Amino acid sequence: MSSELSQRRRVLRLLGFGALSVLALPALARVLAEEKAPADSLAVTSSLNSKLGRWAYHCHLLYVPLQCFTAPPREGVTLSTSWTFLHSHRVALTQDQLITVARGGSVEVQDSAGAHTYSIRLGRSV
Are 38 and 65 in contact (CB under 8 A)? Predict the structure, then answer.
């Protein structure tokens, strides 16, 4: 009986450490993710989603260089988002999407994981 009680205490202690680690993760991620926006870029905030559930809702920033709108590459671009919760995502934009945004329209794209949506538009045409 003593051995079983000891194992239960050990499991509860590990669960407690795990819960504290999860609670500390957002603060740690913020410290590690101090990023500055490039001066010549459009900053786009993602949707607030998480595949882990509401307790882990978070967003990412996507920095799209303004040059992508003035001279959209034929092959489009694939960009990385900011780091949040110790991860980032890849977002692909086609040449047609970049042209649409440059002409004053807007596009919605998802990252490669399908975790977040990015609504991209300029305040003015480039």
Answer: yes
40 shares a domain with 28: no
Range of the domain at 55: 36-121
**How many domains would you assign to the chain?**
2
- Mind listing the pLDDT tens digit for each residue in 92-119? 999 999 999 999 999 999 999 888 999 9
Q: Is residue 52 part of a domain?
A: yes
Strand, helix or coil at 31? helix
Tokens read off for 24: 């500390």
pLDDT, tens only, 15-45 = 766 665 556 555 555 544 456 667 788 888 8
- DSSP letters, 63-110, are EEETHHHHS--TT-EEEEB--BTTB--EEEE-HHHHHHHHTT-EEEEE
CB 72 within 8 A of CB 50: no
Range of weakest confidence among 69-73, 75-79, 83-87, 101-105: 83-87
